[in-house]
From TrEMBL:
It comes from Arabidopsis lyrata subsp. lyrata. Keywords: Signal. The keyword DNA damage does not apply. Pfam families: DUF538. The lineage of its organism: Eukaryota, Viridiplantae, Streptophyta, Embryophyta, Tracheophyta. This is Uncharacterized protein.
Length: 166
């Protein structure tokens, strides 16, 4: 009769050890921003506030999660909106089939569907047109609500290249 309680004790002991090991493995998981850098993207294409993400390494399919949607304005007449979940496919220098990110151009909200890094430039595509920006404009992440103006530091993207077609 004493064997049964001992076996139950060992079962729970090893069960809890496996839970602790799994939690420790999650602590070793790189942040979403570190993951971006591993695919040769700057952290600034993703605003601060990602609470978790998942990535299928075999396909590059990813999801990034915020606590809520995230909007901010950048000088140069850009308004950006990130849904609480964004997704797409990531590979070296390329994000495709992106969903959950919009940019306001004039009076229209357009989905950003692709981001490609070409040397020191990033090309953002909204399907019908695209715009190129210098990579050094994305070395820091904007903050939801206030973009880069939160720290009294002004960051500008300048022109509005989404207006003309490529």
């Amino acid at each position: 009769m004493t064997l049964l309680p001992i076996s139950i004790f060992f079962f729970f002991f090893f069960f809890f050890l496996s839970l602790i090991a799994a939690a420790a493995a999650d602590d070793d998981k790189p942040t979403a921003y570190t993951l971006l850098q591993s695919f040769n993207f700057p952290v600034g294409i993703l605003p601060k506030g990602v609470v978790s993400y998942d990535l299928d390494p075999s396909t590059g399919k990813f999801h990034a999660y915020f606590n809520k949607s995230c909007s901010f304005a950048l000088q140069g007449s850009y308004q950006l909106d990130y849904k609480s979940t964004i997704s797409g496919y990531i590979s070296e220098n390329k994000i495709t089939k992106l969903t959950g990110v919009k940019v306001k151009v004039l009076f229209l909200w357009l989905n950003i569907v692709e981001v490609i890094r070409n040397e020191d430039e990033l090309e953002f595509s909204v399907g019908i047109t695209s715009a190129n920006f210098e990579i050094d404009e994305f070395y820091e992440s904007p903050q939801c609500g206030c973009g880069f103006d939160c720290k009294t530091k002004t960051k500008t993207l300048g022109r509005n290249p989404f207006v003309s077609s490529v």
